[in-house]
Amino acid sequence: MGRAADASQSEQAVASGRPQLDVQLRAVTKRFGSFTAVNAIDLEVERGQFLTLLGPSGCGKTTTLRMIGGFENADEGSILIDGQPIDTGPKRTRMVFQSYALFPHMTVVQNVAFGLRMERLPKDRIDAGVTAILAKLGLSDHASKFPRQMSGGQQQRVALARALVTQPKVLLLDEPLGALDLKMRKRMQGELKQLQRDVGITFIYVTHDQEEAMNLSDKIVVMDHGNIVQVGTPEEIYRNPATAYVADFIGATNLLPATLLPVVGGQARVRTVLGEFPARLSRPTIAAPGDAVSVAIRPEVIRIGADAAAMPNRQRGVLVEKSFLGSVTRAGIQIADGSGADSFVVLVDFPGTLLYSPGDAVDIGWKTEDALVLARDQRLQTEEALK
Ligand SMILES: Nc1ncnc2c1ncn2[C@@H]1O[C@H](COP(=O)(O)OP(=O)(O)O)[C@@H](O)[C@H]1O
Ligand SMILES: [Mg+2]
């Protein structure tokens, strides 16, 4: 029934104008003993998408990927690949690991041909498939080398070739660039993105590196303690983080503890260590007046010096640190609250050379829409209580 059912699912999706889904997780839970590593997650991955599971170490990324790959069984829920349960029919996913996992005693050609040999394909089909994929990955000149004779980047290309030669529906990649140095990692990011467009299949990628996720992905799934906290494009997640946790994890941000004040004339207001000011609610129902919230202001939306004068929200502070980051100079501006009891260092990114020095008094300012009110993260609250 496999093929017929495939076709009808795809045809139905096309007819209804819905995106075709390659992978669906429904209320998937995985426990190790009494510990819940993945907590009832729902996920839909559109065909041909580069989707990244992003989150800190231990949040359940690998476990989720291993369940999609069929290496681990879910305790609850269901996983469908192209509309069919994962255990139906031939395997439709392949996995690439950080450690490459190549056979050390086999040449590049033998490593790449291995999967097709296991499928008992005729020799000419195997040769043609291997030759084509080695060419695509720029490995043709390395065909008779052994893994130990190659660099990390080259070995990872062999691992990619070995996975792709079997023409999986979905490629699963678990921190595949994690063992490479920064320069090679950046280069391989570019190659991976190009490769994914070339082969056109769905990639599900795992990383704890937010910059890598932003660079590679059509869609990012932010995970935290076995839960999905947000799904969106890199831009959506950066501009409209669902929680303070996401805002803090993706890019640099100034995260101010705050109390939400009653809305005045349709405008939300907050009380913070920087005083009271208007701000934008990330979602209309994010919190009620009196609730503890967080206010996120990105360093690059804050103006400094003369540029601050035109901004509706202004503060005066003292420059306490300054670092040149290449495309921007990042300054730390210490703002003391009125009582003198507390102060807060606001990070500001200035595009160019900043002429102020430590100790200088400077003005900063921002637009109301750039101060985003987010639900307070439970852990941030706990950290504050411990201070
Ligand atoms: N086989 C296992 N036995 C017990 N605990 C595990 C096992 N695999 C993973 N875990 C735990 O599940 C949590 C999630 O692990 P993992 O999915 O590997 O996280 P990530 O890939 O996001 O770093 C971690 O706390 C980890 O220690
Ligand atoms: Mg992992």
Structure, described:
The chain has 2 domains: 18-239, Rossmann fold; 244-386, OB fold (Dihydrolipoamide Acetyltransferase, E2P), CATH 2.40.50.140. The chain is globular and about 75 Å long. The chain has helices at 2-16, 61-68, 108-118, 123-136, 152-164, 182-199, 210-216, 234-239, 244-249, 378-386; strands spanning 21-32, 35-46, 50-54, 76-81, 84-85, 93-97, 170-174, 202-207, 219-224, 227-232, 254-264, 267-272, 275-281, 292-297, 303-304, 313-324, 329-336, 343-350, 361-366, 372-375. The chain is an alpha+beta fold and 387 residues long. The chain has 10 helices and 20 strands. The strands form 4 sheets. A 6-stranded mixed beta sheet has the order 6-7-8-3-9-10, sandwiched between helices. Adenosine-5'-diphosphate (ADP) binds at residues 32, 37, 55, 57-63. Adenosine-5'-diphosphate binds at residues 32, 37, 55, 57-63.
The biggest beta sheet reads:
6 strands, mixed
Backbone CA Rg: 25 Å
- Total of DSSP H or I helical runs spanning 4+ residues: 10
Strand order of the largest sheet: 6-7-8-3-9-10
How many domains? The number is: 2
Going by CATH, the homologous superfamily of the largest domain would be P-loop containing nucleotide triphosphate hydrolases
Query: Any idea of the CATH class of the largest domain?
Result: Alpha Beta
CATH architecture level-2 label of the largest domain: 3-Layer(aba) Sandwich
Q: What percent of residues adopt helix (DSSP H or I)?
A: 25-40%
Give the percentage of residues in beta strands: 25-35%
* Coarse structural class: alpha+beta
